[in-house]
């Protein structure tokens, strides 16, 4: 069982390490677009966020970015069903949305408009990458669980690696 885990873990760590290099912007071979795709994470928003349980939430977890009151809502029942490792990844993913100030609406008041779908997709990708970066040392099992869960979503693995290579 242990060996089975390791072969899954290695690609995850390798790609996370590449991603970390891309995010650091160092090495002299990381192109500008990578920096634009992954802006600096705002960790102060993450640390200020309130984390609230909502048993009627239709999703396992959701982040609400609001500079005055950033918060993460989670459904304890749904998170328990996916197990602790994947639950840790999903919560880190939501922290990623807060760290990058992702909002479903752009602008405020009467000027607010829905964020385009293509932008929402890039938000999901960035939040996945944030989760991998924040967990690959402390909770590698969470990254393994996510890789298994998202195996059909090649963007998590190949997209991040392409960005790191870019
Ligand atoms: Zn998301």
Describe the 3D structure.
With 166 residues, the chain is mainly alpha-helical. It has a domain at 40-154: Zincin-like. Helix content is 60%, strand content 10%. The protein is built from eight helices and five strands. The protein has helices at residues 2-24, 32-37, 43-48, 76-82, 84-99, 117-135, 140-149, 154-165, and strands spanning 50-53, 61-64, 71-74, 105-106, 113-114. The strands form two sheets. It has a three-stranded mixed beta sheet. A two-stranded antiparallel sheet has the order 4-5. Strand 2 and strand 3 form a beta hairpin. Helix 5 (84-99) packs across helix 6 (117-135) and helix 5 (84-99) packs across helix 7 (140-149). The protein is globular and about 45 Å long. The structure holds zinc ion. Zinc ion (ZN) binds at residues 93, 97, 124, 127.
Helix/strand-derived class? mainly alpha
Give the strand order, joined by hyphens, for the main sheet. 1-3-2
What is the overall silhouette? globular
Order of helices and strands: HHHEEEHHEEHHH
Q: Using the coordinates shown, work out and report the CATH topology of the domain at 40-154.
A: Zincin-like
Bound molecules: zinc ion
Q: Please give the largest β-sheet.
A: 3 strands, mixed
Beta strand count: 5
Cα end-to-end separation: 35 Å
Strand fraction equals: 5-15%
Rg from alpha-carbon coordinates: 16 Å
The name of the CATH architecture of the domain at 40-154 is 2-Layer Sandwich
Features:
mainly alpha, two-stranded antiparallel ribbon, 10% strand, disordered N terminus, 8 helices, 166 residues, binds zinc ion, three-stranded mixed sheet, Zincin-like
